[in-house]
Amino acid sequence: MAATGSGLPGPTPLDGGKVEGGTVTFPNWRGEADRPSPPPPAPLPPGERVGFAFVGLGRLTLEELLPAFAECKTARPVALVSGSPEKAKVVAAQHGIKESSVYSYDDFDRIADNPEVQVVYVVLPNGLHRDFVIRAAKAGKHVMCEKPMANSSQEARDMIAACKQAGVRLMVAYRCQYEPYNREVIQRVRSGDMGAARIIEATNTQVMGPGDQWRFRKALAGGGALPDIGLYCLNTARAITGEEPVEVFARIFNPQADDRYREVEETIAFMLRFPSGTMANCSSSYGAHESKDLRVRLEKGRIDLENAFAYEGQQMRVAQRGGKAEVIDTVRMPQQNQFSLEIDHMAACVKENRVPRTPGEEGLQDHHLMRRSTGQPKPGRLSRLHR
Ligand code: NAD
Q1: Which one of 178, 181, 232, 286 is the catalytic residue?
Q2: Cα 216 to the center of its chain, rounded Å
Q3: How many percent of the chain have pLDDT more than 70?
Q4: What is the predicted pLDDT for the residue at 4?
Q5: What is the pLDDT of residue 374?
Q6: What residue ranges define each of the domains in the chain, with the CATH number in brackets?
Q7: pLDDT at 9 exceeding the cut of 90
Q8: Which residues line ligand 1 (CB under 6 A)?
Q9: What is the pLDDT, as a whole number, of residue 211?
Q10: Catalytic residue check, 292
């Protein structure tokens, strides 16, 4: 053990770690009975990471997406697009973004001349996604777009066509498809070890505040609870089965006296039937206390994922027969930031010229299904909820 300049003994090999291929690893210091700690993250140096520009500095961008870069390994924020120069200046300073890389919605197209920007991430109200995705593609940038992809299937098709024509990648930010517990459910069901999945139950509810919000305006939101949060139930049921539903129908409830629900739906229940026979019962509401859970009932057991569609707090339990007992196992995995994972996924796709796991076509398919489930013309104000 070498002495340091201070006269103290130097680190032992167990404490010092080892540098190999540009990354640092440590030998396991824990006993056999405990899980070893994961290796330290090995982020790319900032100059080698894929540069992201954010369009829209609202809650999701400031509260979740920009903070998630602290855990990203392949991506970094390099530009902002906002209608508020004052807000953009503060946020740029907080995240080390150059003032010259701040754009307004009007001069956004100048982003074509910024070589640091490789991906434009559109985080505006849904009704504005189409135009900004198309403008980003025309600027020659890869595009990531928040869910729901658009306000209608036609808008989604326009976005896919624009990205194809420009030769750029398009990813819809279905964060749950990158979240480790959701992935574990998908893997367990698809492995077949628990037999066929018969019933999926997915619920995504929350209580909305006062009416002065874009989410209550059809032109900006496209719809209410379904495209905003019920979409996760739909997308997850498809991801779990790996199938497309052959039958889908929905019922909607709107409180008559509540002006917030003149243009968009408050509560929706919908059912999907998949070719293998799996049925999904899904429900979503803007008027029920937050609850974001997933259950899969299979031939040989049950998987429960609490907070499946939340940003954090996932808890997974698997119930199966164990001899004469019903055994309920709790599955605990390391918590990972699902926003960091999805951003790094897009960055890896850009670097390796790969199609993202959730491309534009995934968003388009959900729009088709939302229209099929709710699109039958009905009298009164519930007609044409989803186009
Ligand atoms: P927000 O209202 O907090 O932010 C919207 C931003 O768009 C604001 O900066 C606002 O100034 C700007 N904007 C520009 N034109 C506007 C207009 N005409 N009306 C209203 N705002 C306008 O919204 P948010 O919650 O950040 O949602 C933005 C997008 O992100 C939406 O598509 C939403 O569905 C999606 N989202 C996704 C998740 C998720 O978990 N992946 C969570 C929340 C929101």
Answers
A1: 232
A2: 22
A3: 96
A4: 63
A5: 77
A6: 47-173 (3.40.50.720), 179-335+360-386 (3.30.360.10)
A7: no
A8: 56-60, 83, 123-126, 128, 146-147, 173, 175, 214, 220, 228
A9: 87
A10: no
Average pLDDT over residues 170-182: 98
Q: Are 316 and 235 in contact (CB under 8 A)?
A: no
The beta strands (E) that lie in 127-246 are given as 142-145, 170-172, 197-207
Q: How far apart are CA 163 and CA 144, in angstroms?
A: 11
- Pocket-testing residue among 59, 129, 204, ligand 1, by greatest number of atoms within 8 A of Cβ: 59
Choose which residue among 59, 60, 91 to substitute to test ligand 1 binding: the one with the highest number of ligand atoms within 8 A of its C-beta. Answer: 60
Q: Which of 147, 178, 286, 292 is catalytic?
A: 147
Distance (Å) of CA 249 to CA 100, 111, 148, 152, 279 = 50, 43, 19, 18, 12
How confident is the model at residue 380, as a pLDDT?
A: 31
Q: What's the one-letter identity of residue 224?
A: G
pLDDT band for 372, please (50, 70, 90 cuts). confident
Where do we find the tokens 């070498």?
Answer: 2
pLDDT of 381 > 50? The answer is no
- 3-state helix, strand, coil split of the chain in percent (to 5) is 35, 25, 40
Rounded to whole angstroms, how far apart are CA atoms 8 and 28?
24
| Whether residue 79 has pLDDT greater than 80 | yes
